[in-house]
Sequence to fold (144 residues):
Amino acid sequence: MLIDGHVCREKRCYNCCIETEMILTPSDIARICSLGYRLGDFAWFDGSYWRLKNKRGRCVFLDERGLCRIYAHRPLGCRAYPVIEDNGVCVPDFEYCPFAHELTYDEYVEMARILQRVFVELNEPVPRMLTRSEFESLKRRMRR
Fold:
């Protein structure tokens, strides 16, 4: 299951943690700061949003074994991945995530709802969710 990170941990995949540009919400920042981290230790401001920092090209929280140091407290965007926003729609990131094709529709819905929360927290237009038929059609097209 992708929703709980099982596949990623089992396959030792952390593609999404390389050169991350993950946007942080106010609740992400508060959650991570509550662990004892200072904002400047893990985030940078791009002029519009706070984003996760990279250290030597990897997310600042990725350890030497490829595991997240704050997994249980990770940002909402990380929890939603591999569902991303593309042109106002929540879609699986088939291009970058090697396991996105394993995503079930139920997992997609759960992750898309998390992603929508990110947009709500940032006061940005909320992307729409794919219907089951749109999701299945997209998955078929991306397998070819």
About this structure: The longest strand covers residues 83-86.
